[in-house]
Amino acid sequence: MSPDPTLTIADYVVSVVILVLPVGIGVWYAVKDAKKATREEYLLGGRRMSFLPVALSIFITFQSAISQIGIPAEVFFYGFIYIVSTFGVAASFLISYFTVVPLMYPLHITSLYEYLKLRYKSETVRLLSTVAGMLATLCYMAIALLSPALALQASAGLPLWMSIAVFGAVGTVYTALGGIKSVIWTDVFQTLIVFVGTLAIIVKACISVGGLSEMWDLAQSGGRTDFNRFTPDPTVRHNIWALIIGHCFLWLVNGFNQSTLQRISSMKTLADAKRAFLVLVPCILTYTSMFSVTGLVIFSYFSLQRCDPFKGKLITNRNQLAPYFVLHAMTDLPGMTGLYVSILCCGAVSTLSSGINALAANTVEDILRRPLRSVAEGRITLLTKLFVLLYGGIILALAYLAKTLKGPITQMATTVFGACGSPILGIFLMGAAVPWANKYGALAGLATSLTFNLWISIGNRVKGAPITPLPSIGTEGCSRWAGLDNSTWGGRDDLFNSTMSLVSAIVPSNNSWTQEASSKPATSGTFVLYTISYDWYSMYGCIVCVAVGLAVSCATNRFCSSGKGREEELHCSESRLIFPFIRPLWGMEEAEVTCYDASQSENHEKWRKLNSNKDKDIPMDCL
């Protein structure tokens, strides 16, 4: 273990190279595509992207530094059972393969929320969903940017504002310059860094504890490998059913996401889009397994040291565990600390770049669509780039300001992301599965589900019972570490705690991975909904949205339909807006259309003109 856990020259070289390369990719595509100043080129890559880089881009987009810091801590304090969640996530990708991809790709839309306008024939549904989704994205991007900045601040003593500015500027600049192409190819590079870097850390750590067999024995003796949690009780924080079913719904939200839609639409064919989602399955299985094993390795290492860093007060927040381990136990290998910091940077920058690109797309396609109708395509593309810069600046400011916010305000801000996710998922699923679901049902379901999610999420944070970690490994050996932590964390506890509380606050509402135990005592009179595990929030929110939406749709279809025109307005008669596998159940037939080669961008406009009847879809044999 190192008494001076600061970045060396080798660490800086590794970090700088990994930060500079994305900017180079952005400049390359800015020069290469300078004459292709169209939104389709900038936001969708001209619809000519190959499936493998797009698959890796989808994958790394939703793997932020929050998970890279949080999964090891989750396993260390609460057990290896968390790895079961990866099967739920993998299942969500397979469900998207049969639902989201074949529904969205043939529509050839740029904005996800354009589907809601087509399906529900309502600008209100589209606008409200857009605003909710954008606000949630802004909040989450700020937190994702903040996490690696904290790690670098703790390791090298760099000012927090400097770290945020560097990471944010890199992500914003290459996204603004090169558009979705630079985002996708940078994501490919960053995915490789994350996998290779994490594997290197695991190998080095395993060697230090005596190998995989010794690691597993230590974890087993410490009670971290217990999988015997099959209780259906929804108040149990983690059990097999919650981790699989709950996380399946949690990640289905990402299927109906603007960033995902842009990548689906960027590929050459529907077959390529489907292949991309199949590639996601082994990616997520490998990713979660690697970071879960990292948690076991860290547990084994500190078991041999007979020191629980949290109980021994070497760290003041459980989310500091992984950075603390790397910065103290792995500095004997030159560049390893820099590589770890780079992993966190990749997670944050990839999420940021995808987020600001999606926010810019929503702005020009959903919010400013009508005012920009008469504006030249080149100017709209330039305006889109300016919005990328604007949103990048806003997220930079939010990330920095987050350190000054404490308590319920920050918890509510981060809760917004999870609260918005499942209601939006609900109105998409309802609209794509039930032709008679209408705009009144969508609005009612959205409002009710948003309210429900915010209610139980905030109630859990305020009134919920405390969470008890697994038995500690003791603190007898922590004396040898005494004094080392002061050089790293000393003087910055308040800053780290206030900001890392943002990561913990996401837990009951979104896809965060760890949750701090509450200091307040449990009360027997706690309202039952406040005791529900956060794993179930997305599923319950989606169910509430669909149930209320269908009930209101049924009522309004019965009492508001007067005449054929009114009935057609409330019912969906376009088969292209319904999930393909459900169409036969509703007696909907496929329509023939003129095929086109999606690999040739000029043919896309030709296809749109030939098939101006929007009831038509692209048959599978065209692709």
From TrEMBL:
Residue stretches spanning the membrane: 12-31, 51-71, 77-105, 125-146, 158-180, 192-216, 236-256, 277-302, 339-361, 382-402, 414-433, 440-458, 537-556
Gene Ontology annotations for the cellular component aspect, listed alphabetically: plasma membrane
Organism domain of life: Eukaryota
Subcellular localization: Cell membrane
CDD domains in UniProt: SLC5sbd_NIS-SMVT (cd11492)
Topology in the lipid bilayer: Multi-pass membrane protein
GO biological process: sodium ion transport
GO molecular function: symporter activity
PROSITE patterns, per the entry: NA_SOLUT_SYMP_3
Primary site of residence: membrane
Keywords tagged on the record: Cell membrane, Ion transport, Membrane, Sodium, Sodium transport, Transmembrane, Transmembrane helix, Transport
Pfam families: SSF
InterPro entries: Na/Glc_symporter_sf, Na/solute_symporter, Sodium:Solute_Symporter_SSF
Record bears the keyword Cell membrane: yes
The UniProt record lists the keyword Membrane: yes
Protein family: Belongs to the sodium:solute symporter (SSF) (TC 2.A.21) family.
Protein name as catalogued: Sodium-coupled monocarboxylate transporter 1
Species whose genome carries this gene: Elysia crispata (lettuce slug)
